[in-house]
UniProtKB/TrEMBL annotation:
This is Tetratricopeptide repeat protein. SMART domains: TPR. Residues 1-17 form the signal peptide. InterPro entries: TPR-like_helical_dom_sf (IPR011990), TPR_rpt (IPR019734). PROSITE patterns: TPR. PANTHER family: PROTEIN O-MANNOSYL-TRANSFERASE TMTC3 (PTHR44395:SF1), PTHR44395. TPR repeats lie at residues 234-267, 302-335. It comes from the Bacteria.
Amino acid sequence: MRRLLILSLLCCSQLFMLNGCVSKPVLQTDAGLFHDELFTAPAEPVSAETVFKLNPAMQQFLDREIRKQSRIHSDQRALYMALYDEGKLRLRYDSSYTRNASDTFDTRSGNCLSLVIMTAAFAKQMGLKTTYQKVFLEEEWSRAGELYFSSEHVNIVLGQRKLAMTIDNTGSEPMIVDFLQRGEAANLRSIEIDENTIIAMFMNNRAAEALARNDYHQAYWWVRAAINADNQFAAAYNTLGVIYMKLNQAEPAYRALTAALALNPKSLVTMSNMVQTLNGLDRVAEANELSQRMFDEQPHPPFHFFQLGLAAMNRNDYAAAKSLFKRELKRAPDYHEFHFWLGLAHFRLGEIADAEKELNLAKQNSSNQKDLALYAAKLNYLNARR
């Protein structure tokens, strides 16, 4: 079977697990982890300087729209209303690219991390206190070829953080800004994270997105910067390990993944990559032991039934494929690609109405414009056939 490399992203992409009161080892980032000599110079600038920077259009929006609301409401309420309540920006969710503040504003789109960064940029300019949160939602998965992405969620709180978090639409109480429904975000368990971690998340996402384009050199410089921004961010070490794996550099990959596991020993994402690395180093017994540990924790990992379904499609066993795709959808009912392949299985079986239903669900659940256009074209083709 083709190897699967797993990355962590925010919304957003994998991310990492933060374990409240557990102290973490302090890692030395110069301990043989970086190998600049393997990579060409970055084709695009890699810097934290532009992450929260306002462009002239943003400054104008702040002066004309947000300040106008500040004469009537609290500053955090004014910012929230100008950005979201009145729908002036009409932001749309787009998982394809993690944007900085100005790009998010200009394109009116982004993932949850992009939204947090843009909101924070305005809040900083207004002198508002900002608190970043990692939110504990059910882990989401996606893929690009042999790369698999585990995604987690972040949001931002405007104003003073309190133990009993509420949303106040009139006064100076804390306000949560989130892509989730307004009442939903306030009721979810979350932990506070530092701004340096937000910057590391941004850079790690950029690295993962470069990897998906097979741009290993740009990916390396982004993830290197992510580790320098926050050397306790486990997901970045995992991404660094995957970059080395793609270049068949097993020893550097092993060191990077070892660092990731030191920070997050329970990460099945990193364990999966480590199994492949250990096999590449001919440390088969260790790989088998770690594989068994993973199987004990999770006998059927994400995409397990999906992969079996693809194999069934390849041997023209469409009934088996349909059953397997349905099993995967029970675990992730909103993932667009599962609906697409189930629709294709229905189509091969001559079940045209069911195929159309699944393609519509794939279109509704698509998280970027590219997938949306693809599923729309498939639906048009299906309608033409009908």
